[in-house]
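Reviewers of the previous submission asked for a worked example of the structure-prediction workflow described in the proposal, so we include one complete record here. The input consisted solely of the amino acid sequence. No template or homolog information was supplied to the procedure at any stage.
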Amino acid sequence: MTNITERLVRPEHMNAAGALFGGVILAWIDEAAAIAARKLFHTTNFATVAITGGIYFRRPIFLGDLVSLQSTLVRVGRTSIAFQVDINVFDSKDPAPVCSVQEIVFVRKDAQGTPYPHGLSPLLITHTP
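From that input alone, the workflow returned the following structure tokens.
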């Protein structure tokens, strides 16, 4: 299962060095993966619990760039799911992702906030990291 989210880099997203502010891309990563999780869980009762593997920016993202965030399901647990997120810039001469997150993990919660089995099948995974 893969989900694509796109964002346009606007002036309010820039840092003092003239590139996309790192905190903005981290928020976009969380949002893109949360959208993918929402589509699988069919509820808003879930939480981001971890980002593993770190994040490394290979090159800057600039004003006006069209950023694509590809969230790919890579793990299904009993109450959790995890996505790999790859960030690319449209029309970039470099085909490698600008940055990647190895795993962002979401846990399904019940009304009391306790982890709850989601019932999703590991067969949903179509890509291995």
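Residues 2-124 form a domain with the Thiol Ester Dehydrase; Chain A fold (CATH 3.10.129.10). We consider this example representative of the routine output the project will generate in years two and three.
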